[in-house]
Amino acid sequence: MTSTNAIEVRGLIKTFGQTVALNGLDLIVPAGEVTGFLGPNGSGKSTTIRILLGLLRADAGQAVVLGGDPWSDAVRLHKDIAYVPGEVNLWPNLTGGQCIDILCRLSGPLDPARKATMIQRFDLDPTKKARTYSKGNRQKVALVAALASRAHLLILDEPTSGLDPIMEAAFTETIREMRSEGRSVLLSSHIFAEVERLADRVTIIREGVTVEAGTIAELRHLTRSTVTVTIDGDVQALAALPGVHDLQQTGEHVSFAVDDAMLPDVLAVVSTMQPRSLVANPPSLEELFLRHYGQELAAMNGAES
Amino acid sequence: MNATQTQMPVISGAAQHGAQDSLAATGTMMRFVARRNRLLLITWPVVIVGLFAYVSVYYRDLLDTQQALDDFASISNTASIKALTGLAAEPATLGGAVWTKIWMTSALLLAFAVVFLVTRTGRADEEAGRTELLRSRVLGLHACSVAAWTVIAGMCVVTGVGVSVASIVSGLDPVGSAVMGSLVLGASITGVGLVAIGVAAVAGQIAATPRAANATASAVVGIMYVLRLIGDLGSGTLTWASPVGWGQEMQPWGANRWWPLLFSLVLTVVLLGVALAIEARRDVGAGLLVARSGPAAAPARFASPLGLALHLQRNVIIGWTLTVVLAALMFGSVAPSMTELADDSAGSFAQVLGGTGVAALLSMLVTMTSLIVTVFAIQTTVTMRQDEASGIIERQLAGSVSRTRWVGQRLLIPAVGSAVLLLIAGALLGVGYASAGGDTDLTGSLMLAALTYWPAVMLLTGIAVLLFGWLPHFTIAGSWAILAAMWILVVSGDALNVPQAVLDAMPFTATPHQPLEPMAWTPVVLLALVGLGLLWAGVSRFARRDIQTD
Q: Quick one: DSSP state of residue A214?
């Protein structure tokens, strides 16, 4: 195991009775980077995170968190870990501010200045009882508690699921700060845009198995960019080029998909056609994702029709 | 299709929002409540009727001569028995003997079952947000509550009828008389259950959480029991202040009165009316008390499992301390008058129990207060499972806190708390006793007598911890069931034909009953060792197992 990875997981297996939750999962979170952890509901994201926190014990496989065993070294490791659960439970009789203080002190010393900054940034009223908070506000309490800490590793399980767009922006800003301070982040999500915006690397899992892992750039090599150009004249030459798919023409607007590997060649041809405008969209994670679940989607559509 | 739709009223006016609207879909809800709780709704009547039938048949065979019945009556006619279970109107009849042995247990079992069911179908559903989901459909404001109460009232009636049938079949009614006694008997148990519905319904409207609702309603049932306890020992006035007392005063096979049942019915209707009135005014999910703002910061001690638990459980701790203080003072202060009665009545009291009236009665009162302390210990212990089930334990364990440290600190509350409460109980029993004219010297020895029960309390705590470690989903129900079962064995075990060796091994029986019996170290040390073993087995398992949320 190298010290350059905050989390290294290999071949993780966890079963609950007959249900296989994880079936040989691999996951790497390099130190100082933000790693996105993508998968549909029930694919095993939360189970993985709960194993990384020592709340569940893996049946087989290897998991190393900050150089230690997440089960047996839990107490030592948790001093350097901040966690935001997907579904935030708080002590109903305590105020948000009290909950934040408790959560911060459970892993390290409380930094009142940082707490105040985060409370202001996320526009939270810390004097309200947790019982009266909405889902979004409970989420904010957990986020503030995690982001106000000096933890080396942040484990965030769908942290923005209850937040409005303004708070998501505050979240994005904070995660970027964390990254620039050299901290490591595991960001589980099924919001593709969020992961795309924040993550350096992505691991995609499905039914407890890792199906794709790499940097966002690496994964894009597997996919197609969408290009829209405004061109006068005949575009049939374009359609015939290798790597070009789904060419559609509406008046002078032409759009098509290009295999990323063929993009330089195709653009060279386009430039000879003197386009008046050109927009190229990198493939979204959503497309990446759909490729992995395309079969299931097709099956579902087939079943419906 | 279209024609029907156009005939539907567009908007029902405010004037039309009457009783009918607020009860819309009550029938559907009744089926729903019955379906969702069918196991409990069947289990409780079966357990209570079964218990009653078993004791009836056993006593019919055991007490088969009038001489045996007379002997049993004279054994029963003690202050201790009067306090614990009440004494039948005609103790020297078969029905009277069975009544003395099992009526109180049956009635209280039904009352507590009703309390938990009312909370489970009311406040708990509301807290979980299920009521909100239901009320968003075409459902009257009171439909959920009324449906649940009706179904549970049905369970009370079924239980009462079952007890009557069991009584008739076992032949408890005297030869030559009709079955009136059996009918009054069944009705008296149903009556206690109905009042419990009213109590739990009001508690569920006022309390802010299901836990608080259960605690409040259970405490009220406890107060009813204590009121009649004092009444039965004294002039009987306080017995009439208690709905449990009304059930007793129906006196099956004695006066065979029906009219005390009317008190129960009226009180039930009044309490349910109050509950409905509150429900019509308050918001779903909220109690009567509005949540206030609080401090924006927490002291550092809240970061330790013990510090936070002490803060969160302070109301429970204060509540049980007050209960123990009041109960001990009350028990102590009625003891002198009770022993005078006992001394006057006959020498049989002292002979049967092998000691003086004072010592026997005080020993029994110490045992009773130790039971109250055990309830405190179990309640604070099962909060560990509640924290795990709700998932909130993960917030703390995701911090730098080990499992063993978490459990260890949490167990300090029942462990230290019950020792302190036992000492308080013993001291105040002595103080109450002295203030009412009893012997002053007893305070110190009663404190020690009460503290002797500490290993027994910790053994039951140990069982709860063992369940928490090995069968987490069964912790809460299991711990309470085992405590209830042990208590029933202690009170009625002989009537259930349980071998004496088993009864003697029960923690509360094995503990030397001071001041009646001398101190004996062997059972106390054994209980302590078994308790420690159970604690160790539970804690070490919890440290190794997965966290299991509900």
A: E
B416 touches chain A (CB under 8 A): no
Burial of B55 (0-12, 13-18, 19+ CB in 10 A): buried
What CATH number matches the domain at A5-219, 3.40.50.300, 1.50.10.20, 3.90.650.10, 3.40.50.150?
3.40.50.300
Rounded to whole angstroms, how far apart are CA atoms B92 and B66? 8
Measured at the CA of B342, the angle between CA B340 and CA B343, to 5 degrees, comes to: 65
Read off the pLDDT of residues A25-77 as tens digits, 9 standing for 90 and up.
Answer: 999 999 999 999 988 888 899 999 999 999 999 999 999 999 999 999 988 99
**Mean pLDDT confidence for B379-384:** 94
Chain B positions in Cβ-Cβ contact with residue A108 (cut-off 8 Å): 400
Radius of gyration of chain A (CA): 23
Residue at token pair 């949320």: B549
> Between chains, do B397 and A53 touch, taking CB under 8 Å as contact?
yes
Interface of A with B (CB under 8 A): 50, 53-57, 74-76, 78-79, 81, 83, 85, 87, 89-99, 101-103, 105-108, 110, 112, 126-129, 131-132
Q: Which of B296, B395, B546 sits opposite A95 (nearest CB)?
A: B296
Give CA torsion, residues B241, B427, B320, B230, to 10 deg. -10
* Average of per-residue pLDDT values in chain B: 86
pLDDT tens-digit map of B236-271: 888 899 999 999 999 999 889 999 999 999 999 999
Give the largest Cα separation in chain B, rounded: 88
- Dihedral pair phi/psi, residue B236, rounded to 5°: 95, -5
Supply the DSSP symbol for B11.
Answer: -
Which residue numbers in chain A have pLDDT < 50?
Answer: 1-2, 303-305
Find chain B residues with C-beta within 8 A of A130's C-beta.
Answer: none
How far is CA A223 from its chain centroid? 19
Does the domain at A224-282 match CATH 3.30.70.920? Answer given as: yes
Name the B residues in 169-228 with CB < 8 Å from any A CB.
208-209
Question: For the segment B311-350, what is each residue's pLDDT rounded down to a tens digit?
Answer: 999 988 998 999 899 889 888 887 776 665 555 444 444 4
Domain positions in chain A are: 5-219, 224-282
Q: What was the pLDDT predicted at B7?
A: 47
Those of residues 525-544 in B touching chain A at CB distance below 8 A are 544
Q: Please, are residues B232 and B287 in contact by the beta-carbon 8 Å criterion?
A: no
DSSP states along A119-176: HHHTT--TTSBGGG--HHHHHHHHHHHHHTS--SEEEEESTTTT--HHHHHHHHHHHH
Task: Kindly tell me the sign of the dihedral angle through the C-alpha atoms of B402, B537, B474, B310.
Answer: negative
